[in-house]
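quick q for whoever's on today - can somebody do inverse folding on this one?? i tried earlier but teh output was garbage lol. tokens:
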């Protein structure tokens, strides 16, 4: 059922186009603001307790509904799982990269800049070679797809929604300082640790194995703080990124376009690797 829910969700996203119009999180923003207005002045709010309280209510409600449907009907339980998976998966990276490639080909500078603004994510860099954009595309693929898949497999619909909401809180607190924002970032760091390593292995299997593992090995820093670097370094290694060594503007644009296409291809190949492994686990009875 787990793999089937994932396949149904990905299939609907592919055949129906991006389903971002269905992913309305206004309720969560309203709920969090209401909760902060009630608890913001209490000492426990500024820290992990405040973050856990923010997440507790929606996750508890989903857990209760999931348990109720499990007892009523496997079909209803499956439908709920597929719906929550689709809802939790973020904006389709493939569609965004398709639009980016089309904008690069047509020379639509306005669209190119707009999409690059969406892609930049956690990467802050003055780099003009496109490396920062490419790194951000891989991070977006992790936060909006692979991380959701991992936690959906591990904890079902509750896990998928948990990861999705934490990513949303992390984006909201990106430019904020304080104990609450730090707790959100720490929780995000804990949640991305395992899928980041599995994604790095996926990049290695889907691209250049030696270069991906070499990039991963060169990552420094505390293990709970370097997951973003693990993702980007392994991905850049897997696609064998090299600096553009030509001064011809047209040649530079053509080479950069080819790199963006390889980013998209590597993400898709890695997804196939993950789904293949999940299929084998399902056949062996390891995955339900």
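ok took a stab at it. sequence:
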């Amino acid at each position: 059922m787990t793999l089937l829910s994932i396949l149904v969700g990905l299939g609907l996203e592919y055949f129906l186009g991006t389903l971002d119009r269905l992913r309305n999180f206004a309720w969560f923003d309203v709920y969090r603001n209401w909760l902060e207005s009630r608890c913001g002045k209490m000492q426990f709010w500024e820290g992990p307790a405040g973050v856990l309280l923010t997440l507790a209510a929606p996750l508890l409600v989903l857990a209760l509904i999931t348990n109720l449907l499990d007892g009523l009907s496997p079909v209803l339980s499956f439908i709920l799982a597929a719906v929550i998976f689709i809802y939790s998966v973020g904006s389709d990276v493939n569609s965004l990269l398709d639009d980016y490639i089309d904008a690069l080909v047509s020379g639509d500078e306005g669209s190119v800049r707009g999409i690059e603004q969406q892609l930049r994510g956690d990467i802050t860099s003055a780099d003009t070679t496109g490396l920062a954009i490419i790194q951000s595309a891989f991070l977006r693929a992790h936060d909006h797809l692979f991380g959701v898949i991992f936690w959906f497999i591990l904890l079902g619909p509750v896990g998928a929604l948990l990861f999705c909401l934490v990513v949303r809180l992390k984006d909201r607190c990106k430019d904020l300082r304080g104990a609450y924002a730090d707790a959100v970032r720490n929780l995000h760091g804990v949640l991305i640790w395992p899928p980041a390593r599995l994604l790095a292995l996926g990049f290695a299997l889907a691209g250049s194995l030696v270069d991906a593992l070499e990039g991963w090995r060169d990552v420094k820093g505390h293990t709970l703080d370097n997951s973003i670097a693990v993702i980007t370094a392994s991905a850049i290694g897997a696609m064998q990124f090299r600096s553009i060594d030509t001064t011809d503007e047209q040649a530079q644009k053509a080479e950069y376009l080819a790199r963006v296409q390889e980013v998209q291809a590597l993400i898709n190949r890695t997804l196939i690797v993950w789904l293949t492994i999940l299929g084998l686990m399902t056949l062996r009875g390891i995955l339900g």
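fwiw DSSP finds eleven helices and no strands in the chain. also Confidence is low (pLDDT under 50) at residues 122-128. so keep that in mind when u check it
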